[in-house]
Amino acid sequence: MLSWVVRRTRLPLLSLRCVDCGSESATTGKGRFRVNANGKLLHVWLLVRCVSCDRTVKIAVYERAPVRSFDPAELDRYHANDPELVASTLLDPLIARRNRFSLDWTGAWRLDAPPVGLAEAWPVQVEVVFEDPVPVRPDWLIAQGLGLSRNEMLRRVKCDIPLRRSRIAGFTFTVMAGD
Ligand SMILES: [Zn+2]
To answer: Ligand 1 centre and the CA of 111: distance in Å?
Structure first.
């Protein structure tokens, strides 16, 4: 079985309307958290910037959370703007929903797909693995990875999942020999 991998090449942008300039796009830049202690309560925000006017927007990660509920090592990672923590925070669907943004993955990911060669023993099975939760339409992805038009892809590919619906979970498909 061949393995294809979907992975991010950078952090996606946030689709988030700016109250100042009306732009619909914000970026984490290098990634910065703000941690504020208020007595025994902590607020943690991820700071993002409007891509057109640079206005800073605070994405709530924790609000009024008891200080003692934090592992000190975790707090250190927020203070240090740990890049992995920036990524996992940005990609956390609950945080996105609570803060009412979605992710714009345009140009922020790639498909690593070894070519399916002419010498293969047909049919060929391909497994698609998602290293990052990039929502992609399987029909588009498979056609792209095989270098086929969508119509030719549909003739040659057998797959049990809905091909037109974006997904972020792995799947497999089978490619039949061409004519
Ligand atoms: Zn703006």
So the answer is: 32
Answer for the pair 95, 89: CB distance below 8 angstroms, yes or no: yes
Q: How far is the CA of 14 from the centre of ligand 1 (A)?
A: 12
**Hey, what amino acid is at 176?**
M
Q: What is d(CA 31, CA 79) in angstroms, rounded to the nearest whole number?
A: 11
Instruction: Kindly report, residue by residue over 55-112, the tens digit of the pLDDT.
Output: 999 999 999 999 999 999 999 999 999 999 999 999 999 999 999 999 999 999 999 9
Can you tell me the distance from the alpha carbon of 11 to that of 103, in angstroms, rounded to the nearest whole number? 9
Rounded CA-CA distance 118/166 in Å is 29
Give the C-alpha separation, 104 to 113, whole Å: 22
